Amino acid sequence: MKRIEGYLAAPFTPMHENGEVNLDLIPEYAAYLIRNGLDGAFICGSTGEGALLTREERQAVAEKWIAGSEGKLKIVVHTGGISLKDQMVLAVHAERSGAFAIAAMAPAFLPPGRNEELLAYCKSVAGAAPSLPFYYYHIPPLNRVQLPVSALLSSAAKEIPSFAGVKFSSGDLDEFERCMQLSEGRFEMLWGRDDMFLDGLDYGIKSGVGGTYNHCFSLYRKMAVAYAGKEMKRCRQLQDQANQFCGILDKYRRNIIAGKSIMSYLGLDCGPNRLPLQTISDPEKKTIREELDRIGFFEYCNK
Length: 303
Hints:
The structure is a single chain. By secondary structure, this protein is an alpha/beta fold. The chain has 13 helices and eight strands. An eight-stranded parallel β-barrel has the order 1-2-3-4-5-6-7-8, surrounded by six helices. It is globular. The relative contact order is 0.13.
């Protein structure tokens, strides 16, 4: 089974001012990620507003990322949503289009309440694209699904041949440690908490997916290098810088909204958010810019 073994940005889905998807910006976006040292892109996830896009839009976005990256990025297509049938169609499409892998979070509406239900759900999505690695996207702060991933791993090892690992976007470190012990190298644990990146390094992560990798991946790359060299003071300094940036995002409706707006300062105008998300206003943009200047963001941001 193929493995990611690297760091993937969770890109925003570019949109025109009228709310339609801006496919033309994606090749430039892909070049930007490559230039800044990313190994891949985890598309149409929460950062990419995937649940607010139509199935046809998500297919078009996937095709553009796969073609636009010219084989230089590992493209993981997130299929998660409400309709299982739509997710299976998206998985088939990803496989036919040349994606590296697929991933799915559990639905937030009528979510699985037992491990057996979560296992059946993952098995259905993964089975639609059996040649691609499948990653379960664990993000309880967003979809409120609190089922233990460790139980899923134990079951998936027997039931889902293409189950490759988990994108773990929870702060439950005890559960993450249980998953690491259970995986025993078979499953890849993708770290998904940028504000706790150093904690992930302590638990031995080798791969990650981050929304703020879009803005300042150099901080995380340098942190991984510093950690390998046992430069813990440097690691803490870098995590503090990342957390200052994350704090600004949290102040202005988090990365999905504030982070998307900030991309215009980095040369990629990703446009507005899709309703019901409220796009950053012009007065907010001015204040955010002032706060970014205050923390020295433009000295270490992606170029």
